[in-house]
Amino acid sequence: MNFLQHWSLSRSPFAAVTSYDAFFSGNPQREATARLDYMIRSACRSAIMLSHRGCGVTTMLRRFTTTSGVGGTAVQPVMTTGGVTSKRAALARLAVAMSIDPFSDRLAQRIEESVRALGRSQVKTLWLIDRCDVATAEAASVLAGTTSSLAIVMGTTLESAPGLQDALDFCPLRIDLDAFRLEDTIGYVRFAVAAAGAKSQLFDDTAIVRLHELTDGRVAMIAAMSALALLAGANAGAKSIGATLIESVQNELVRAA
C-alpha cells in the first residue's frame, strides 16, 4: 500500500502548487497581495518582493499569474525567471512569455509596442520575475521608464536584493513575503491535507507546533518535512502524525545533509 492509500488521500498534499484551488493564503500572502494592489492603484511601476529562502516567492508569483485584475485595473500577467547574464537574454525570455519572436530586431521596442497596445485597451502588463538577477533587473530598469502600462515585480532573497537595487535606476516599492506565523502554519497544514481528500486531520497539534519550530515558518521546509512525515508514518502504519515522528524526520534530514 502506498502512502496515499494509507492516509486515504487523492493526491499528495504538499506537492508544488499547480492550481488556484491548492493555493493557501496565509497572513504573509494576504499582505503581499495588498502591497501589489497598492502598487497598481498608485501607478507605481515596479516592486521588489523580498523574502528569506523557502518562504514561497515562486508560488506567490505563480499565484499572481492567475489574476486578470489588480487594484481595480485589468492586468495581463507574464512570468519569467532569472538566471541570465545579459539584458538581451532577459528581454528574450520576456518576449517568449508575451508571444513575441525573441530573435526579432529592436526587441525592446517590440515589447514596448505590445505593452502600449494593451495599455490602449486599458490593460496593464504585469511582468513577474522569479529569482531576479542583475541582468534581468537592468532590463526591467530600461523598460520601466518607457511606458506607464507596464508594472514589474522582481522576486529575490534578502541576501541578493542589494545587488539588484544597485542595478536599478529607480527606487522600487518593497513587498515583503515573511515566514509563516504559527497560526499560518496550522492553517496551511490543515488546508493542505483537507484539499487532498483527508477524512480527518492527519497531523495533531503537537506535530504542527513542532513543524513550525523546526522550520522557522518557512513554507518550503514545512511542505518537505510534512511530505516525508506522511511517507514515514505510512511505512510505520501510523494512524496520525505526532511531534515524535516530526522530530524523527528532522533527524533523518540532518543526517542526510
The CATH topology of the largest domain is given as Rossmann fold
Radius of gyration over C-alpha positions, nearest whole angstrom: 21 Å
How many β strands by DSSP?
6
End-to-end C-alpha gap: 29 Å
Secondary-structure element sequence?
Answer: HHEHEEHHEHEHEHHHH
Strand order of the largest sheet: 2-3-4-5-1-6
User: Tell me, what is the CATH class of the largest domain?
Assistant: Alpha Beta
Report the portion of residues in β strands.
5-15%
**Structural domains: how many:** 2
Instruction: Report the sheet with the most strands, covering strand number, pairing sense and barrel closure.
Output: 6 strands, mixed
Tell me, briefly, the overall form. Answer: elongated
Helix/strand class = alpha/beta
Total helical segments? 11
CATH architecture assignment of the largest domain: 3-Layer(aba) Sandwich
Percent of residues in helices comes to 40-55%
**What is the average of the pLDDT values?**
92
